[in-house]
Amino acid sequence: MTVLGEPGRYVVRGNDWSDLDDARPASPPTVSVVVPYYRAQGQLDLVLAGLAAQTHPATRLQVVVADDGSPEPPRVPAGVVVVGQEDRGFRAAAARNLGARAADGDVLLFVDGDTVPAPTYVEELAALPSLVPDALVTGRRRHADLTGWTPERVRAWFAGGPAPEELTEPAWLREAGSLLDADDRSYRFVISAVMGLGRSLFEEVGGFDETFDGYGGEDWELAHRLFAAGAVLAHRERAVAWHDGPDWGLRGDDPVAAQREKNAETRSLARLLPDPAARGVGGWWRFPDVVARLAPGVDVDATVLGVRSLLAAGLDLQVWGVDPDLLDGDPRVHAGEPPAAVLARCRTQVALSGPLLWPTGELARLVDLVRPGGVGRLLGDVDGVAVEVAATRALRRCARSGVDMSTLFGESRVDMSASAPGPHPDLAHHLPRL
């Protein structure tokens, strides 16, 4: 279900954009398509031929080729914008950001330099982001053998002529469905080869993380960060682009080299994604899953107990608002407010007006209640201590749209099984139980 914002713009409740599935803007949006490129002129020629055949009005379409340091710049038709960066290895994330900075469309679409968009690609992929400022849409990537193909053959194919040999479409992408029931792990179905969103949303989150300097992972990290920012995930099967060659998992590369490449991607994602399935359990991470803000108690001992109880909750959690020296410099305890980069990635935020003692499993239960499909925020009061447990994505979308939490995600007051330690608690009594 959706809520009407300004005329022609909608805010989605949860992730249910179903009543906008066939909706189209009153007039075509201005769209910029960013194509990352490196030393593959023949494939780029096919991509540009596909973009020249779009049903979206050419007067509302900009194409930006972002060159990742090729020895010779790409050759492009008049009107296509080319931007470039020096060659410092594989930097597709930085190249896409470079292209996005040169874009002037209200909607940003991405298509890889070896992936030829079908004629309705732009029209289909840009529709939802033009109506829903929070939308992040992934298209359908199909595969074909385009070896030896020319722009003329592409134009003939799209005009109804002979098609290339179609290759196997990866099953893991087909499993995405519509993404109407997207959850915390649905970022895995978003690929930058066929992706679109509003330029303002892209700029708000800071674009791709440019620390990625190898193949893969930067699109999943961005999708996770966008989902935490309140993005509505959607899969638009009608927005088709054709990748030249098989999917990465079907290329038959050297298995040891392929495993090393995949492991490098896994390590890169683990440091940035607070997803237990991506990083495992245990260990310390710069970007925690749960951010807890704790107002200090009436004395040092109560505060120490409150922090220790939070850290013992079995969650990937860090605490802000407390002098870390009270906990012997524990790296999970911080003074002041959490940094913007931490808030951009955490899935859940907990705020307490004072320290509490949490029984085993209780805080994890509350956190689970604000996962996708649950409510956006829980409120409670324990012995005079105010508690708020909220999904970051709910907080961010409500703040962006100005629509209240109860309307977009739901909000509940709940009983919480915790207790306040009170002033001057007996540490020797409580600490062994945490």
UniProtKB/TrEMBL annotation:
Residue ranges of every copy of the Glycosyltransferase 2-like domain listed in the record: 32-156
Transmembrane regions: none
Keyword Glycosyltransferase: yes
Pathway in which this enzyme or protein is active: Cell wall biogenesis; cell wall polysaccharide biosynthesis
InterPro entries: Galactosyl_T_C, Glyco_trans_2-like, Nucleotide-diphossugar_trans
Origin: domain of life: Bacteria
Pfam (any one): Glyco_transf_7C
Keyword Glycosyltransferase among UniProt keywords: yes
Molecular function (Gene Ontology), one example: glycosyltransferase activity
Residues annotated as domain Galactosyltransferase C-terminal: 187-231
Keyword terms of this UniProt record: Glycosyltransferase, Transferase
Similarity comment: family membership: Belongs to the glycosyltransferase 2 family.
Protein name: Glycosyl transferase family 2
Species of origin: Klenkia marina
Organism phylogeny: Bacteria, Bacillati, Actinomycetota, Actinomycetes, Geodermatophilales
